[in-house]
Amino acid sequence: MLEAMGQRAKLAARLLARTTTAQRNAAVEAMAEELSLDRESILSANAADMRLGREAGLTPALLDRLLLNEQRLEAIANDVRTVAVLPDPVGEVFEQGVLPNGLRIEKRRVPLGVVGVIYEARPNVTADVAALCIKAGSAVILRGGKEITRSAAALVQALRRALERVDLPADALQLIDNPDRELVRGLLTLDRYVDMIIPRGGSGLHAFCRQTATIPVITGGIGVCHAYVDHTAPLDQVVPIIVNAKVQRPSVCNSLETLLIERSAAAKLLPRLGAALQEHKVELRCDPESLAILREAGNSEWHLVAAQPDDFGQEFSALILAVRVVDGLDQALEHIDQYGTDHSETILSQDPMAIERFLNEVDSAVVYANSSTRFTDGSQLGLGAEIAISTQKLHARGPMALRELTSYKWIVRGAGHVRD
Amino acid sequence: MLEAMGQRAKLAARLLARTTTAQRNAAVEAMAEELSLDRESILSANAADMRLGREAGLTPALLDRLLLNEQRLEAIANDVRTVAVLPDPVGEVFEQGVLPNGLRIEKRRVPLGVVGVIYEARPNVTADVAALCIKAGSAVILRGGKEITRSAAALVQALRRALERVDLPADALQLIDNPDRELVRGLLTLDRYVDMIIPRGGSGLHAFCRQTATIPVITGGIGVCHAYVDHTAPLDQVVPIIVNAKVQRPSVCNSLETLLIERSAAAKLLPRLGAALQEHKVELRCDPESLAILREAGNSEWHLVAAQPDDFGQEFSALILAVRVVDGLDQALEHIDQYGTDHSETILSQDPMAIERFLNEVDSAVVYANSSTRFTDGSQLGLGAEIAISTQKLHARGPMALRELTSYKWIVRGAGHVRD
């Protein structure tokens, strides 16, 4: 079954690679329309997923993630529409020249081919990923979490109809709708047809994909983000940035997990920071030094806990923050090196030397100075949308959008050229 | 042992990432010098490899590949020197801007980190790869073929001494000198420390790496290159290009393996092509149509053979060429799609429409018009050197050199920025 899907996807990809920007934009527009038109069957499929999810005892948080309603579906359709108007990277010539021997050379962006995306119980990912891949000229094989089997199938049916409507091959978008986990393994080794695997989920999924795949995998998405605050950082910036990075949306990968504070700034800054975070009910897991300062500054309502060793390097994805006092920049860099996940880190400082060292030496996808880490996001950084956040170093790093869904080819034009 | 090597490599990579261009250039210069200074011990180690190789009954071709002498060692040192003067990609800012909210963003090239290179019995690869990786600011772990165990160890010893001489960490260059094959498997799964694997060898090695590695692998190097000749191609270009592509160096991956000729051009061109290739003793493995034309044109000294099915898609790496008559461009594209390895293909034609379709639709790393395929090479295409030729679509495609040995990071500067 996978073999046949792969063949169909590759054939569809070849056709897609020959389309114009206008054709692919029309396809994405049609996808948005079909999502609205097909509202009833999508919502009724989702209602079935929700019913089964409740019976299976899924948590309220997971059920909420599963849920589609008219408003959410319209938001998904609007996100798809946004993709249609983004600039098209396909065909862009990004280097060109003439060699001394007269050969004319260009490097031109071309579609990747076939992308495999493995995701969890988020129905919206189905449409987001489909729109980005089709826009970038690639076919996509989707495998969603078993909790959204019916919703994903209904969404894909609508999206495939849109492709047919504009005379593009429906097989450019295929869904593995059988929940058998062996099929994930099969997709990960379908290297004759699939050019790239994008896992969208937790660290377990990423590790499984890395270990199993014979196809390049984009790993990422796990964010243990750090902030380092030194004694030159102004209080009126520190408090809003740390609160924003921790509190605004604690469940996402670019939220803050660990605060490192320079010893000489701790006595001044920590009490104010503690008070501000306390207002948002943030639990602070503190090393002995910061715990002593915060215990003295706070009251019994503050959520103060002595940090355990594994609190550093942990992705809490909740209103919990690990806190540690460090000697200075060097110790902060060492800590980040040891515990970070190469995602996003920020320095709050007015010392230009410290800022430049931090930006140079922290080996993360996105490094910030005097900013919240919450901007590590394709839309926030000006890409318009994102298909994943890569924390590996090959191909693309940080937010990945349309351009990162392309490859390139060398085009060489001669006039009878032979090599000496 | 590998764990410790990985740790040391990562530490060395972190130090390398903080060096200046001048420091890394000095290191590469010193590497070239030490190769010359250490001539005696390198050549005597190589003599031992050669003796064991002869005892083991290696073929003369393989023994020649193994052999180092003063002249070859000087050539290797010169190649290393060439790397020192190439432009440094590290630190290059290739995109920058200010977002509407005032965040200042740049994307800056940074070293990859640690590269693992697995190669076969070519001593020169040891020095080439070391020079490119160090220049690009990355540490490298080498694993050479067992036939060059002693040569590689002697080369690495000299190269490490060069690093120490310029106060860079010798562990930026390490060699797995134990021939146990389990260590290759170990290197391929050393994902805590190694950022990229480059196999340099045959298709078996590439497949093994893809299947075993939990680290991104650059696959490539296998070249079943095609030329398509249509009826508009001028004879005075066709003959030299086809002869050059097949004959100049048949053992390399960018040499021609299959000639596809448009039916309406076959009767005119094939006899002349056959005669020219015959002068170079090229064996032609022909489909029935081309065989009939060539048999009629040639004489008993021509090496004409009826093609077997597996002659198409085969990398002969020898003076053998598969020949097929096709209806026209569409059939040529189908043939390449079915049998090609996405490496290098060329069209010989004066028809602009056919040329553009070929360049657009052939999904290979390098596509040519009216040129030999032999230019798919880092030096030939203006990169100055190459570490590999990628035929996959992620990260880099075609010749890979210094820039393709880098990653990038996002640098974001704010002034108290928080996300709404």
Automatic annotation (TrEMBL), chains A, B:
Catalyzes what? L-glutamate 5-semialdehyde + phosphate + NADP(+) = L-glutamyl 5-phosphate + NADPH + H(+)
Xref: Pfam families: Aldedh
Superkingdom to which the source organism belongs:
Bacteria
Q: Name one GO molecular function term.
A: glutamate-5-semialdehyde dehydrogenase activity
Gene Ontology terms describing biological process: L-proline biosynthetic process
Q: Which InterPro entries match?
A: Ald_DH/histidinol_DH, Ald_DH_C, Ald_DH_N, Aldehyde_DH_dom, G-glutamylP_reductase_CS, Glu-5-SA_DH, GPR_dom
Q: What EC identifiers does the entry list? A: 1.2.1.41
User: Which keywords does this chain's UniProt record carry?
Assistant: Amino-acid biosynthesis, Cytoplasm, NADP, Oxidoreductase, Proline biosynthesis
Localization per Swiss-Prot or TrEMBL: Cytoplasm
Please provide one cellular component term from the Gene Ontology annotations of this protein.
Answer: cytoplasm
**Gene3D superfamilies annotated for this entry?**
Aldehyde Dehydrogenase, Chain A, domain 1, Aldehyde Dehydrogenase, Chain A, domain 2
> In this protein, which residues make up the domain named Aldehyde dehydrogenase?
5-288
Pathway(s) the chain acts in: Amino-acid biosynthesis; L-proline biosynthesis; L-glutamate 5-semialdehyde from L-glutamate: step 2/2
Entry keyword annotation includes Membrane: no
The Swiss-Prot or TrEMBL record describes its family as follows: Belongs to the gamma-glutamyl phosphate reductase family.
- Function comment: Catalyzes the NADPH-dependent reduction of L-glutamate 5-phosphate into L-glutamate 5-semialdehyde and phosphate. The product spontaneously undergoes cyclization to form 1-pyrroline-5-carboxylate.
Q: What is this protein called?
A: Gamma-glutamyl phosphate reductase
Q: Which gene encodes it?
A: proA
